[in-house]
Design a protein that fits this description.
eight-stranded mixed sheet, 240 residues, 10 helices, binds NADP nicotinamide-adenine-dinucleotide phosphate, alpha/beta, Rossmann fold
């Protein structure tokens, strides 16, 4: 099972390290020539290879570890029908104001999914800081193992991502469909919380009574309470 990481910055390199430590084949790409990142990749994640972005897309799991506004510049066609983990965040402070990404009626991962037509998007790994990823990876059963939230529309996409998160030393916490990713974006209690799975679950639950949750609920025309309809959970993809 090969992991392809798009982005050789802070998050991309630490995820490459964790995936190598979990025994995965790992390839990493930046926006240009892989030769430019050969050294940093080899140093951060021995055994990982620097490749062109199109080659990184030919992986079983592709992780987006680039600034969110760079997503449209990725090899969009090569990502079609791939399992893609959206670890990006929208920071208006650094990304600038962007109406589509700031829209409370959609999560930023739904916008990323729109920019990458055909890709099977799962939101995960965005709310953990680089420090948490670097320092708090723990084996299954460890009492201090931290939780990482996952949101995706289809079980067959969410399941392998959950397994990957577990392999790299964190407990996957399923948060429902991709739209539910809004509960662990920047500005929420769960974002950067470094929490155990139970604590993280409670934070995700409390989202709907938070200030941000009320804004999102009002914009989406729903009650300020966790959604109870089937649209809130990952489902099985129908073929054809
Ligand atoms: N920092 C955190 O604690 C943290 C935690 C979780 C998630 N995140 C999210 O992860 C993303 C990356 O954050 P970061 O802190 O790792 O950023 P970073 O250190 O600035 O690294 C960004 C990387 O993206 C690459 N890149 C840009 N455009 C690309 C393209 N078209 N194809 C391939 N690679 C491209 C850059 O390569 P070039 O040099 O070639 O441009 C660079 O290697 C952001 O969306 C951030 O919100 C950050």
């Amino acid at each position: 099972m090969r992991v392809g990481i798009l982005g050789a910055g802070r998050v991309g390199l630490v995820l490459a390290h964790l995936a190598r430590a979990a025994g995965r084949e790992v390839v990493v790409a930046n926006s240009g020539d892989p030769q430019d990142i050969d050294y940093v990749v080899a140093n951060a994640a021995p055994g990982a290879r620097a490749v062109w972005a199109t080659e990184a897309c030919e992986s079983d799991i592709v992780i987006l570890a680039v600034p969110i506004l760079k997503v449209p510049s990725l090899p969009v066609e090569a990502l079609s029908e791939r399992l893609v983990v959206d670890a990006t965040n929208y920071w208006w402070e650094t990304d600038g104001h962007h109406a589509e990404l700031a829209d409370p009626t959609t999560s930023t991962s739904e916008t990323v999914a729109k920019w990458l037509p055909g890709a099977n998007i799962v939101k995960a790994l965005n709310h953990a800081s680089v420090w948490e990823l670097e320092n708090l990876s723990r084996p299954a059963g460890h009492p201090e193992r931290r939780g990482i939230a996952i949101a995706g529309d289809y079980e067959e996409d969410v399941d392998p991502v959950a397994r990957f998160i577990s392999e790299i030393g964190f407990s996957p916490v399923r948060a429902g469909a991709l739209a539910e990713g809004v509960r662990f974006e920047p500005g929420t209690e769960a974002f950067g919380a470094d929490a155990t799975p139970d604590v993280l679950r409670r934070m995700l639950h409390r989202f709907w009574t938070s200030q941000r949750g009320l804004v999102v609920a009002r914009a989406r025309g729903i009650e300020a309470a966790p959604p109870t309809s089937s649209s809130g959970v990952a489902r099985v993809r129908q073929n054809g």
